[in-house]
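Weekly structure sync, notes
Attendees: PL (lead), two postdocs, one rotation student
Agenda item 3: pending single-chain targets
PL asked that the sequence for the first pending target be pasted directly into the notes so everyone works from the same version. It is reproduced below exactly as submitted, 216 residues in total.
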Amino acid sequence: MVRGSEPKTSSQTAQFDLCGGHPALDLVNSLDNRFHAEGSKELLNAYDDLLRLTEELGLLDASRARQLRSAATPKAVARALSLARELREALSAVLYGILDGHPPRSSDLRTLERHFHRAATHRELAWMTGGGSGQSGVQWQRGRFTQATELPVWLLAQAASELLVSGALERVRACESDSCRWLFLDKSKNHTRRWCNMKVCGNRMKARKFHARHAD
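Predicted structure, written out during the meeting:
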């Protein structure tokens, strides 16, 4: 989503605001205004939104997205979208809990565990022949599972799994705007990044402080 605008529907082509710096964090941010008093805004309103998010994150190529879009049945689409949101909310609960100093709930960990197992089992080993100076070897790939409607969910689950068990978890931050709190990976040199997007939340909070200091 482009921050400061209305949420985009599946028929619109505006990109998601991928300021999280990691696919798992951008997935969590796909529920906008999560902590806003007026209520949250769902950005994954349709399967096409899920495909577009996964594609923009570089996890799915455009050709595969088109194939999945054209082959999906209404029942499969509804299930994939529901699973994506379930993954997102369990991941959100765990990450925000960690940031707020609370240990993750067992129920959320079990939900993530189920998603991670499904992502891991829907892949196959293949022999990859290196061309030119490339090196041949055995690699994991999605293979026969690339036609599955749930493929975007598995790709996002794999990314989330890799984040949670890596040292990068220590660099996950939440935007300091209380009504935003979008998650991002702090890659700044001194690990002092405060905002999801300086041009949006950063400038907005600076403006509020300025007006507060100069109020009569």
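Discussion points:
- The beta strands are 31-32, 41-42, 124-128, 137-141, 172-174, 183-185.
- The first helix runs from residue 23 to 28.
Action: rotation student to compare against the earlier draft before next sync.
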